[in-house]
Write a structure and sequence with these properties.
Helix 1 crosses helix 3 and helix 2 packs antiparallel against helix 3. The protein is an all-alpha fold. The chain starts with 7 loop residues before the first helix and ends with a helix. It is built from four helices and no strands. The protein has two domains: 67 residues; 30 residues.
């Protein structure tokens, strides 16, 4: 069977199906579970006890679950928070560049 390509609309439809099939509370618990598995795999990678592919797979799982959480919590609200966090990062990097620029 050939792999299925999922564009944004197809992913969203799939996520909605999952939320209907399993329920929102269950999907939010899965967000927690997948995040915990990612944390554990990163710790194992740091100790050279798992291959990078394991971490990649966990990142994929977390990405999928976070996309579902975004739909559950409200895409506009999450997107606005992401933009705020990115702006904060921009300011932080500008401050670091300013400080490093004065270290000569």
């Amino acid at each position: 069977m050939l792999p299925v390509k999922h564009d944004a609309a197809a992913r969203e439809a799939l996520y909605v199906r999952a939320m209907v099939a399993f329920g929102v509370p269950s999907q939010m618990r899965m967000v927690q579970e997948e995040c915990a598995e990612l944390i554990a795999s990163i710790n194992r990678l740091d100790r050279e006890r798992c291959p990078v592919q394991d971490v990649i797979n966990e990142v994929a799982d977390v990405t999928i679950m976070l996309e579902q959480a975004r739909l559950i919590l409200g895409p506009e609200l999450v997107d606005r928070a992401v933009q705020d966090k990115l702006a904060r990062l921009e300011r932080l990097l500008a401050e670091v560049a300013k400080i490093e620029g004065t270290k000569t």
